[in-house]
Write a structure and sequence with these properties.
By secondary structure, the chain is mainly α. It has four helices and two strands. A two-stranded antiparallel sheet has the order 1-2. The longest helix has 32 residues. It is elongated and about 90 Å long.
Length: 161
């Protein structure tokens, strides 16, 4: 679908002069430049107006701390340090022993210890009970770390539940 060639003079020119008006192109460019110049001049006039009608007052002394603290809530000024403290606290919780609810007897153990216990006991399977597969095997107790204080057993003596 090519357009037919219009004759020998079309091949000699090498461009189309009927679609583009160079005068209108320059007029448009001059209009854009004029708008930019008017915008810059208008901004300068407004700036000088506000400088002369709203003075900032005497300059602050370099020896005086004139900063006022903004009202609450304030932005974080040391966000990376705050994040480090938060992560350290979370690591202490994940790697340590402690009570979650002492009334109900719920304790928190380190993640590595919990994974070891799950490997010893096995994962619970949905729909199975100890009666189906025979007697349940009690997991053998693992040695506690040296710095661990044993939590009292809320159910009474060991083995009774």
């Amino acid at each position: 679908m090519s357009e037919p060639v219009k004759g020998p003079e079309h091949q000699q020119r090498g461009y189309e002069d009927s679609d583009v008006s160079v005068g209108r192109l320059f007029a448009f460019a001059a209009g854009v430049v004029g708008l930019i110049v008017l915008g810059v001049l208008g901004s300068a006039v407004v700036f000088h107006f506000f400088v002369s009608h709203q003075p900032l007052g005497p300059p602050a002394s370099p020896f005086e701390d004139v900063r006022t603290v903004p009202p609450e809530p304030r932005l974080q000024t040391t966000a990376p340090l705050d994040l480090k403290h938060y992560r350290d606290e979370q690591e202490k919780i994940l790697d340590g022993y402690g009570w979650v609810d002492s009334q109900a007897g719920i304790v928190r153990i380190p993640v590595d210890r919990a994974m070891d216990l799950l490997l010893q006991k096995g994962y619970p399977v949905h729909g199975s009970s100890p009666a189906e597969g025979g007697p349940a095997k009690a997991p053998r107790p693992a040695a506690l770390p040296a710095n661990h204080e044993a939590a009292p057993n809320p159910a009474g003596a060991e083995g009774k539940q």
